[in-house]
Each structure stands twice: as C-alpha cells, then as structure tokens.
Amino acid sequence: MQDFLINWLANVPGTAAPYAFAALGLIISERSGVLNLTAEGLMLVGAVAGVGTCLTIGNHPLVALVVAMLAASIVSLLFASLVVILRVNQVIAGLSVVFFCQGLTGLIGTLANWQNHPIAGLNKIAIWPLSDIPVIGRILFVQDPIVYLAIPIFFAVSIFLRGSMLGLKLRAVGENPAAADAAGLSVSLYRIGAIVVGSSLLGLAGGYISVVSVKLWITGMVGGRGWIAVALVVFARWAPWPALAGALLFGCIEGVVPRIAAAGIRAPQYLVLMTPYLATLAVMIWVGARNRGHQGEPGALGQPHVREERR
Amino acid sequence: MRPEWKTRYWTTLIAAGAVVSCGAVAYAAGFTLPAAPKIAFLYFDQKNDGGWTQAFDEARPKIETAVGMKIPFVEKVPEVAGQIKPAAEQFIQRGYNVIIGTAFGYSDAFKELSEKYPQVAFLNASGTTNGPNLESFYGRTYESQYLCGMIAGGMSKTGKLGFVAAHPIGPVNWTINAYELGAQKINPKATVTVIFTGAWNDPVKERAAAEAMADQGIDVIGQHVDTPTPQIVAQERGIYGTGHHRDLREFAPKATLCSSVWTWDKFLSPELKKVAAGNWQPNPYGAFPGIKEGGTDIACCGTAVPKDLADKVMAERDAIIAGKQIFTGPMKDTTGKEVLAEGKPIDDGGLWKMDWYIPGVIAQK
Asked: CA-CA to B167 of 20 to 30 Å: which in A130, A131, B10, B160?
C-alpha cells in the first residue's frame, strides 16, 4: 500500500505540470479580457515543435521547450489579430484556431516525418541528499527540472498579476477596457501581449507532454487536456495558485486511474476513465453553486473593445 | 393504348426482367469487374501512423508487385459517412473499380456505396458489412498474440505480465485471452494484468499505464494500442514488451521480444487476383484469415529470447497453421462459468462477441 501511494504521488507532479502551465497561460490571457479557448490547439503546436526540435538538432530538451514556447506564441498571433484587431467573436475564433492547429500539426508532423520517432527527452533528476529522505524524498525531490521550474514561474506570475504596476494595468484592461482606455492604456497592445505571453505557457505545456512526458510525437496527442485546462481556469477563478491546486487534483486523478487497474483492483473501467471529466463537472457545479455573481471573472471577459462604443 | 406504347411497355417489362434475372445469376456466379481492375486504398489515418495504417502502407508495394499495377491511396479518411463517400466516389469517377477501406467505421458507408455502385468491388478491413461486391476482412490476431504470450510467459521472471489495451471489445478481448493462454502454456502460474486506456492513440495514457505496471512488478508488457509507447517505457524501465500491428523492435530494440504483425499482402494479393480474374465470391460473413492464410503473423524474436523458447513458439506456429485451435473447450471465465464446452472450439460469432476473460486475466470491464 505504501509503495502504491509513493509510486502514485511521485507521478502526480509530472501529470499535473501540463495542466498547471496551460491553466496559468490561459489565466494571463483571460485576465486581459480575452476568452481563450485555443489551449488544445496551441498545446499541439508546442508538442510538435518540441519533438521536431529534438529530432532536428539533436536531443536538447531545454532548447526544444523554448522552441515550443516560441512556436505557440507565433501561432497565437493569429488568434490575437482575429480577436483584438478584427474583434471576431472570441469563442468562434478560439475554436477555429484549435481546429486549424489540429490540422496544421498533423500536416507538419507528416511532412517532416516526425511522427512516431522516439526522442531521449528530459529525464528526472534526483536532488541529493533530499531525495534520500524516506517517502517524501521520492515524491518531492526526484522530478524533472521543469516541474521544479513551475514553482518560480507560478510565483512570478502571481506577483506580476497582484503586485506589479504592469499587472494592475493588465487587469484593468480586463475589468473595464473603456476606463483603461480613457486612462491612456492601449487596450489592444495589452491584450495582444497577454495572449502571446500566455500562449508561450500553452506551448510549454504541450512541449512538456511530448518532450518530457511521452518523448514522442503522435498526431492529436494532447488528447483533450487543453479543454480540461480551460475548465481549470474557471475552477480557479482566474487566480494562479488555485489553478496549481486544481492541476494537482487532476494529476492525482489521472495518475491513479491506471494504477487502480495495475494493482488488480476490479473497478468498471468506463467509470474509472470518466473520473477526470466527472471531476471537471463536479468542480464546475461546485464553482457555480458557491460563486453567485461573477467573483473572480474579469469584467470584460469575452467582450471585444471598441473605443466609445455604447454597451 | 396506342400500339407503339404497348410495344414499349412490353419491351420495358422484358428488359427489367432480364436485368433482375441477370443480377440474380451474377450473384450466384460471383462478381466480375466490367473492365480491367484499378485498385485504390482509403487509409483511416496517416500512412506513417506507426501502427494499423502503416501496416497497410507497408503491404501496398508488395501488393503492387503481385498485381502488377500502382495502387494510389488517400490518407486520414475519418469514420464519417460524409467524408468516406466523397473520397471513394472521387476514385470511382476516375475509373477505379476496386476500393479498399481500412476501418471498422467505414462498414455502413461501404455497404451503401456497394449498393450504389454494383460494378465496383469493395473490400474493408475490420468492417462488419458484406454483400455481392463487398467483403470485410480481419486477421485472427489471437493466433499471433497467443505466440507472443508464450514468449512473454517464458521471459517473465515474476510471472506477472501486463497488457495495455484500448477498449474491451471482442477483437481486443480475444488478444488478451490468447496472450494469457500462451503465457500459461509456458508458465501455468502466469497472470496478465490489463489496463484499458479508452483510446487507440493516447500515448500519455499508455505511458502512465505502462509505468504503473512496471511499478507493480510486471516485467513483460504486451499491447493492443496503436502507438509504440508501452515498448518505449519497457525499454526505459529495463523490462520486456511485445508489440502489435508492426514489428516494434524499431522503437525498443532491447525490450521488444516479438510482435503480432499484420501481413495484409499475403491475404490481399491473392484476394485481389481473384477479383481481377472475375467470378469473385466474397465471403458472405467476411474474410477472416489466420496465420495460414496471411493477415496476421508473429515477428520473432528479439535477441533476448533464448533459442529453445523461440523453437517452442515456432513449433506452435506450425501447429496453428496445421489447424490447432486456440480457443477450445473446456474453458471457464474468471467467474467460473463455463464458456466453452468440452472439446468444442469457439465459432467466429463467439469470437466477435467475446466479453469474458479466462482465469489468470486481471481486467476491469
């Protein structure tokens, strides 16, 4: 039983990391008032770019992850120009970017012949001597470097959003773009910036799945995890730390599903496979029930800003 | 009624009768193409998907040589009628008259197409529909997975085998049961723990499953999913694995002991020659080739497999070709209920609806 728990919990950070990065990226973008549904697509872009980099220049996983972030940021410019400059409906623009990316990444993977070529990727490192502590050593101190990197990233984004002048302005743009505009802030520039920076984290999430976790590119491999990240943002009420907690919750659930079966516990498999989505639903219901009104939701979420337009 | 109308009336009636009777005769006598054969493939996924579709694409050049013509293909035709029909009709309008599909989900669309185009021959892998000019086909993968199970049972030190599978449906369940039967042939105490990922193509879940297995002391991992991920994990963890669809030694040369592979050229080349020769008689229940007829086989063996084990497996392979049945009674399921009576082999219907596991299989349902 103890082995079961340790093996399970030791795998949770790796399972949770893509959810955490993706949710954080979406939070940055949505705090500026742009409803961002592109996660699934941009994670695929990051995933294919990461593996492609490793296959092209040799196994440099950190370079690959940076390329994954850049690639997702570049593709996100398409979404940014659609919703900020052309002021297209943000839901429709987000969905079409997802479908576009699904096709694009499949095409690139085929043309470049990156599909099904395993890479060495990034392995776990043990932080000695902390890794020798019984029980928690294996869980907390034998992880890959990106998992450790998540902590400073979360601190940085959290401080940026709550404590910095730039973060305050970004939130002002998301709460009341007309007022922010009147105060002399460029709403378009802030929103484009938020989308591009947030999308780099979506790329990191996708790159993490392909380079660190699976070490392989397969068309459509993100497998709906981007949508779970979208739900996580609502669950976390657009705040970084609750998003991390939610990601860990999903990491726990996704990690325990195969382990129940491997331990020989006979549970109905369709019930077990549905638990992550059941948890998503439960979380939404819980948020909906306790969160009357719109606490936490950026005031102008999903609304394109047109100067001097009456609402 | 004017006389010329009368004549026309009778002519029409006679012509209609002639068409009907010709149709009946044609069905009884088999299907003959009206022109020289032109063959085309509809691929379910990308040609280099590493598994199911790639096995067809690797068989294609061999079939081309056998039938002496180029065979074009179209990739990523999803299991949606609205996309299957245009893809097939584009070929038909360009004069192609033998259309080969590669997915279960094409079954209904192919049935409709075969009725709409009675002059075109249709074949569909893992389909369920058949007709006078339509034949579904699938391989008896339990034969090759039984042989892989023998190797897994022989190579496992702990006697605990794992199996990463997609969905608990008949064709997957028979590979699981056959794997356990093969393992028991070498090690009567061997068990197979099954994890269903709920997807053919989710490497994240496959990795999580394989790692959970390795953590539980499982030391050989078989699979019936489309990516080589379980083999890659086995290699990372220093344990063994057995592959499916194609020879997966390419991905995990140290870990992969053997693979259950598709040998579609061995089935399709003679079948297409029959179509070309005329008087083709599609099997009304679908073609279901085993190792003997081509379709499925074992790619054996990795360097780690000792020669005496490989010899045993090859002897069983010969026995299967000679007619040995894998599923034959008496056979009980995990609850102790008798599923096959003494001395009675399973029929094809029983295979397709197999929803039970033999003792030794540890699986969720």
From this structure: B160
